[in-house]
Amino acid sequence: MKQDEQGGPRILVVGAGGIGGVLAGTLLARGHRVEVLCRGADSANALEAHGFRLRGVDVPGDVRAPEAVVRGLEQASGTYDYVLLATQPPDVEAAARSTAHLLAPGGRMVCLQNGLCELRVADVVGEERTLGAVVSWGASALEPGVFERTSSGGFSLGTLRGPLEPEVERLAAILADVGPVKTTENLLGARWSKLAINCAISSLGTLGRDRLGALLRHRFVRRLALEVMSEVVAVAQAQDVELEVVSGTLNLEWLALTPKERRVRGSASLLAKHTVLLAVGARYRRLRSSMLHAIERGRSRRSTSSTARSWPAPGRPTPVNAELQEAVHRMARGELEGGLDDLRALFVRTREQVRELATAGA
Q1: Of these four, 146, 177, 267, 273, which has the most CB atoms within 10 Å of its CB?
Q2: Who wins on pLDDT, 360 or 280?
Q3: Measured between alpha carbons, how far is 207 from 33 in angstroms, rounded to an integer?
Q4: CA distance 55 to 205
Q5: pLDDT confidence tier of residue 309, bands split at 50, 70 and 90
Q6: d(CA 43, CA 87)
Q7: Burial degree of 298 (CB within 10 A; 0-12, 13-18, 19+)
């Protein structure tokens, strides 16, 4: 790997939203050679004038670094050892294509998005140059240049296939200045576990228009979250994915509802799973969906599409995810306001279908 004149790798963060802003600002504060590619003039202007104004937990405060702001690809100089993609998931392929020429020989492109973006980036730059970093902390962009880290946590880092390579360990040492890093040879398992959580947390947070802690105090919202995650787990299992435990404690295969649990309102095992979600809500109580923030800023339907999507899984119905996706799309089109009443309506609308599928064993 090429080293810059300061003795460390050059890093380009693509995207100045919540995750990208906190990541770039924190790494800059820790002395790393970082630049951030801004897509909007408002973000670039704010960062140059006031720096990275970091709020919340585990952040260094304000970080002034106007020289770190890149206002467009034409201003990017030289090549970078790591290109960290922190865009919205629908934009990941365009971001990869537009920055592929900036990768140094032996450089790596790193996906920070939720979802299964590594597969799409690998189609652009090659599987051997693609890494994935599953982010287990939350962040929001409160306004241009102001970023709130809403929870502590770290990363799960690895390649799509095969044993860990030296570049993974080098990047792990860098990201450790932001949070604990676990390297894994089962990146897809870590991705699917995070996807199951994010389909529930981010999408329900968007439709509910509130922070996670407030929403998960409601029993029916927790039940919706369990249904959403259970559908994703079933799809992953159908594709022979071995799910990873999240943050060392959250076992998605255990958390997924059994057919019996999906048919009933309450049981001892359901109580245990609700208790886990209450603990998640307490730990990440300040987390606010980035999709909701994008909708509030008037982003397009494409940029705000829910992670509650339909996967190629014949015979594996995902009715709650499908209803949730459509509701978020309606919010993005301005056809639905969102809020607790809309969440409750979705719960009522899908309840009977869930029971019927559980009875049929689907």
Answers
A1: 273
A2: 280
A3: 38
A4: 21
A5: very low
A6: 14
A7: exposed
The pLDDT value given to residue 303: 36
Cα 205 off chain centre by: 13
- Position 189 scores a pLDDT of 92
Mean pLDDT value across the chain: 89
Geometric angle at alpha carbon 361, from 359 and 362, rounded to 5°: 115
Are residues 226 and 304 in contact, defined by beta-carbon separation less than 8 angstroms?
Answer: no
What's the one-letter identity of residue 351?
R
Average pLDDT over residues 299-317: 46
304 pLDDT higher than 90: no
Q: What is the 3-state secondary structure (H, E, C) of 207-229?
A: HHCCCHHHHCCCHHHHHHHHHHH
Give the lowest-confidence range in 75-79, 140-144, 344-348, 352-356.
352-356
Residue 307 has pLDDT above 50, yes or no: no
Residue in the block written with tokens 């978020």: 328
Closest CA to 158 of 171, 149, 173, 168: 168
CB 330 within 8 A of CB 353: no
Residue 261 CA, chain-centre distance (Å), reads 28
For residue 303, the surrounding DSSP H or E stretch is: none
Instruction: Please give the share of the chain, as a percent, with pLDDT higher than 70.
Output: 93
- For residues 175 and 24, is the Cβ–Cβ distance under 8 A? no
CA 16 to chain centre: 14
CB 84 within 8 A of CB 108: no
Strand pairing class (52-56; 146-149): parallel
The per-residue pLDDT for range 143-199, each reduced to its tens digit, is 999 999 998 999 999 998 878 889 999 999 999 999 999 999 999 999 999 899 988
Interatomic CA distance for residues 137 and 153, integer angstroms: 5
Q: Give the CA count within 13 Å in the CB-facing half-sphere of 68.
A: 33
Give the bridge partners for 63, in sequence order. 52
Rounded-to-integer distance, Cα 159 and Cα 174, Å:
16
